[in-house]
């Protein structure tokens, strides 16, 4: 099987590497020349645990290739996976510019029958539109379009690809569905066959449901703070009920990243387009917007005003084990702190390079936690990196002007913090003052 993957971002690169690892010959195409050059040297353009050794192993085994020459790759392909970005546009709709360009690129190159598999997250009806585009652009070539939404999580993408809960294959044509199922069979993951529109919807519904769980527990946390309950205890007790499940019940300063924010907004728009007011999902989005500002609220309450205060931001990526800054809470928090005329000193173990391109230029970067905390009036923890969770709490006491922590990810046990002269505000738990 000659497989081509279009787009080598978090999804495309991981997909390409994983498909090569189970024995396929895979060519990854990207329009970004610099990225392709680095990948050819075995360097991953994204931070993702475990990806580089796997890349190198499969490149050395002559199963994994990288190119900017899409046309040649598409001509040789039996199956082409599209994994280009589908970011949200200003109105909240999915922007299909990259996807449609990829479709045109493929159409202008293919000369033999091929199956095109869409991994990118796309609104319901998009795969049928792709099918129509192909029929119009290359009527003489038979192209089957299959929807195969991706469920990996950044930070554990390799693990998720090899040990996912399900592989969803949405197709109109049974033979095309069977080919795609055969490609994935060596992963040993349950395969769920369905129609194209349901497959597209499964992806949005799954992300919207997970986002709902997060906003739900965050609202419970906000109530816990007022009634004197502890959200960690509440989540543990709720999670023991198998109908609820314990995952996605960690209270914090909300979800971010390249998927939940844009996919929830896109689904609300999909609903609005058919005159359905998805009130529940709109509330989930609104709760998250407010939650990202929770630490600022707490700090303003504590200090009165933040002008002239030196605030250490610990963690910039939207979650640990990734360098992805898309829709990270740090973007909101840094902007608001600067608007309040605070001085912002930031540290992240991995994401500072990417952060420097997207955070306001007034943000100062420190090369260690200690350096970030030096003489700070307060620390705000935005990402639960292990480096912060495992930090000796005496570091806050020794380095800061006043050891005041606003922990947006509940990194520390209250009884541990209580052993130090630290003022500690977290989410949904009693403050230590
Ligand atoms: P990304 O932005 O990290 O990567 C996209 C890549 O596609 C870039 O390298 C870009 O240069 C390349 N590209 C764009 N147009 C191209 C073209 N015409 N030809 C070749 N390459 C092209 O995107 P991502 O985060 O990997 O997401 C890809 C899709 O998967 C999106 O639809 C996203 O919603 C979905 N998804 C993402 C995740 C995630 O965790 N990142 C998880 C599940 C699903």
From TrEMBL:
NAD as UniProt keyword: yes
Q: Which residues form the active site?
A: 259 (nucleophile)
Q: Which residues bind substrate?
A: 151-154, 203, 248-252, 256, 319
Name the catalysed reactions: UDP-alpha-D-glucose + 2 NAD(+) + H2O = UDP-alpha-D-glucuronate + 2 NADH + 3 H(+)
Ribosomal protein: is it a keyword of this entry?
Answer: no
Extract one GO molecular function annotation from the record: UDP-glucose 6-dehydrogenase activity
Instruction: Name the SUPFAM superfamilies for this protein.
Output: 6-phosphogluconate dehydrogenase C-terminal domain-like (SSF48179), NAD(P)-binding Rossmann-fold domains (SSF51735), UDP-glucose/GDP-mannose dehydrogenase C-terminal domain (SSF52413)
Specify the superkingdom.
Bacteria
Q: What is this protein called?
A: UDP-glucose 6-dehydrogenase
């Amino acid at each position: 099987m000659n497989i081509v993957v279009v787009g080598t971002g978090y999804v495309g690169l991981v997909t390409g590497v994983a498909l090569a690892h189970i024995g396929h010959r895979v060519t990854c195409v990207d329009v970004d020349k610099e990225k392709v050059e680095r990948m050819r040297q075995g360097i991953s353009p994204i931070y993702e645990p475990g990806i580089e050794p796997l890349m190198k192993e499969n490149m050395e085994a002559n199963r994994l290739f990288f190119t900017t020459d899409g046309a040649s790759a598409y001509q040789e392909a039996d199956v082409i996976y599209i994994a280009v970005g589908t970011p949200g546009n200003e109105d909240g709709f999915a922007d299909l510019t990259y996807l449609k360009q990829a479709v045109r690129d493929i159409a202008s190159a293919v000369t033999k029958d091929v199956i095109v598999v869409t991994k990118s997250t796309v609104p319901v009806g998009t795969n049928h539109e792709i099918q129509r585009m192909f029929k119009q652009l290359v009527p003489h070539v038979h192209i089957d379009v299959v929807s195969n939404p991706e469920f990996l999580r950044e930070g554990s993408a390799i693990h998720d690809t090899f040990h996912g809960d399900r592989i969803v294959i949405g197709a109109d044509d049974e033979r095309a569905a069977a080919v795609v199922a055969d490609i994935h069979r060596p992963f040993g993951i349950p395969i769920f066959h369905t129609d194209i529109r349901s497959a597209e919807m499964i992806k949005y519904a799954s992300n919207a449901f997970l986002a709902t769980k997060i906003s739900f527990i965050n609202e419970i946390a906000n109530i816990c703070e007022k009634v004197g309950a502890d959200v960690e205890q509440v989540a543990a007790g709720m999670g023991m009920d198998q109908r609820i499940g314990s995952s996605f019940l960690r209270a914090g300063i909300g979800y971010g990243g390249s998927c939940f924010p844009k996919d929830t907004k896109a689904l609300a728009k999909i609903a609005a387009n058919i005159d359905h007011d998805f009130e529940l999902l709109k509330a989930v989005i609104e709760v998250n917007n407010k939650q990202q500002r929770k630490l600022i609220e707490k700090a303003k309450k504590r200090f009165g005003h933040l002008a002239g205060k030196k605030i250490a931001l610990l963690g910039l990526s939207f979650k640990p084990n990734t360098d992805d800054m898309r829709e990270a809470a740090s973007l909101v928090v840094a902007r608001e702190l600067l608007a309040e005329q605070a001085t912002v000193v930031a540290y992240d173990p991995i994401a500072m390079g990417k952060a420097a391109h997207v955070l306001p230029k007034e943000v100062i970067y420190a090369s260690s936690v200690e350096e970030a905390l030096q003489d700070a009036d307060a620390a705000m923890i935005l990402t639960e990196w292990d480096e912060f969770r495992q930090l000796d709490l005496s570091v806050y006491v020794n380095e800061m002007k006043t050891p005041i922590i606003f922990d947006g990810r509940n990194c520390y046990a209250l009884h541990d913090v209580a052993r130090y002269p630290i003022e500690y505000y977290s989410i949904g738990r009693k403050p230590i003052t």
